[in-house]
Automatic annotation (TrEMBL):
Species annotation: Nocardia africana
Annotated protein name in UniProt: Mycofactocin-coupled SDR family oxidoreductase
Gene3D superfamilies with a match to the protein in the record: NAD(P)-binding Rossmann-like Domain
Highest rank taxon of the organism: Bacteria
InterPro entries (alphabetical): NAD(P)-bd_dom_sf, Sc_DH/Rdtase_CS, SDR_fam, SDR_subfam_1
Keywords, sorted A to Z: NAD, Oxidoreductase
Annotated Pfam families: adh_short_C2 (PF13561)
Taxonomy of the source species: Bacteria, Bacillati, Actinomycetota, Actinomycetes, Mycobacteriales
Amino acid sequence: MGKLDGKVAFITGAARGQGRAEALRLAADGADIIGIDICGPVATNVADASTSADLETTALAVEELGRTMIATKADVRDFAGLKEALDDGVRQLGRLDIVVANAGMWNYGLTEEITEQMWDVVHDVNLKGAWHTAKAAIPILKQQNEGGSMIFTTSSMATIGAPNMSPYCSAKHGVAGLVKTTAMELAPYRVRVNSVAPTTVNTKLIHNQPTYALFAPDLAEDQLTLKNVEPRFATIPLLDLAWVEPEDIAGAVAYLASDDARYVTGLDLRVDAGQILN
């Protein structure tokens, strides 16, 4: 018996990285999955675009675990499309219990050099997208009147700041405020609202040339390799590692989704290897 048997989870940004790891972990614990991803480019994002094939890979992996995944191409910035995907998944799977607002992106630049587009797209994906996710899911959870768990991805940057990342840091601070507010609003409905705050995670959001250049501005372009930049990343956490794995974040999400955390709400659970202490 899995801790999430009979549950249904909605996950945004499910095509790869943290979203895929979360889908697989929740499925392994017994949940069926409603997963969405833009499956295409997002302007100014440092990472390569996710694809429909990525999302299909996640769905097939969930099915290999004996669970069902309703996978839909949708953009968290588009409320109507997101809501349609969620509503369709709930119609097919019969209910909703867990909501994971995971979709995110970032770009870099000094505050005075950030363009309007760079600022807007980060806030639209990371903050408005999280709000859209909550806005679509809350009426379903209230109507069911059986409680539930909402989990947002914040960041260590929701507690501290970082040079060259003002759009991302400010958006994640905003998500932290959204978590606190919705935790208070949904407590009467037995819906717990928490967040997971990762340090650097081993995904395509860090493994790209713009990020390598940010951490190693002294290196020539042909020297921006994983081997050369990994020691730079290792200076971020307090513990002796360069980054955590997506599965580490998925484990924290699985805890917050389960009855093991039945009295936990309004928490920002740091999986940061001690970053904010370093």
